[in-house]
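Bench log. Compound arrived from synthesis this morning; before running ITC I wanted a structural hypothesis for how magnesium ion sits in the protein. Inputs:
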Amino acid sequence: MTGFRSMKVSKALEAKAGQARIRGWIYRKRSSGGKLFIVIRDNSGTIQCVADKSAVGAKEWESADSAYLESAAEVTGMLKADARAPGGAELEVKSIKVYNSMEQFPITEYQSPEFLLDVRHLWVRSARMSNIMKVRSHVFRYAREFLDKHGFFEITPPLITKAAGETGADMFEVNYFGQKAYLTESSQLYAEAMIYSLEKVYSFAPSWRAEKSRTVKHLAEYWHLEPEMAYYNNAKSMALQEKLISYIASSVAKRDRSILETLGADIQSLEKIKPPFKRISYDRAIEILHEKGSQKVWGDDFGVEEEKLLTEEEDKPIFIHNMPKDLKAFYMPISKKDPRTVECADMLAPKGHGEIIGGSERISNYGDMVARMKEKGLQIENYKWYLDTLKYGAVPHAGFGVGMERVIKWMLGLDHIRDAIPFPRVINRVEP
Ligand code: 4AD
Ligand code: MG
């Protein structure tokens, strides 16, 4: 029909009167007494459309009546305020065109989580997933917004590499035209190379981890935000991290309020996320764990259980800093205060959501770096270019990596990290 204004559902619900054309998908449908009640959804909301058999053509009626849920439809008609209708208005249908109604939608009311993962390509349309994906998109934007405001440049690292950024033990191998290469586990080393030109940079890209973990916080492919800053030490880096996380939390709480309400997220808790975050040394963390009955001894790594014990009473994330050097990567400088430890910090989300950031100062002295690499048993040939960066104008610097799905999982209170990403890659799943 011509002359009808194409409108988002949210705008139509606001207008409550006048003509409208809505384009979306059939979300619900029922018929009663010669009328069809069709709820159409688009990316802004849902609206009830009421078609009277006598008001639309026979062919249109037939195609609407037989249309399967999730078929696309374009509906034109008159908006009418109606307190009983969800959203306070409905559309009296003048014309309805259904596109490509082919088969019954396979997702019905009660489905197992496994089945929903099998049909993830369709489940992403659900109200819950749509809402999470909106927040995800916004969280990515808030992070970039913050870094832009703080004078950072976004850089784009290569994702196929020969250099292990972390342990190297858990990388996916790639046959690169006959050469052995890997999907990157961190873009840090490339970000470091870029600070000598742009000083404050961040890379925002996927990282891959081939670790055989089956926990609610592990993905084999995740989105990794990695800022790197020239002339920063560990303390200055921690100060930046708490500001970044607080900015994201308060932005989500304020700007995504209604979605958060729909998802049942804890908005009050997010509003409390403000600097400073507690800084707990590894030594102190071991003491706290003992006080709570843990058997961990100095030198042990922390797992899910310890992260939970350390954060169960916290409202805000905490830092665990100056960890044992044997637990950490080659590029972290030995601490002057205690040479058994390195200048690093992990940020743990409150209430057992686990590590959301790993960061550290970086070794900027060539000789120290080579010595640490040898100690860690790394193949120096693969790091030639990285070592080169230390030969020319190296300066003290620091950086950190944020696991974005972990941040989203925590902020939205999700049970599993897989719901923080549209198509999760976990150990037993590489499809769809
Ligand atoms: O602690 P990680 O391994 O540190 C690094 O990769 C550093 N090179 C980062 C840097 O300094 N530029 O990883 C950083 C963060 C973790 O704190 C966690 O939030 C996330 O990445 N992460 C994962 N997220 C989802 N699934 C996994 N398997 C993850 N492994 C790490
Ligand atoms: Mg870590």
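What the model suggests: The mean pLDDT is 95. The CA atoms of residues 346 and 376 lie 21 Å apart.
ITC booked for Thursday regardless.
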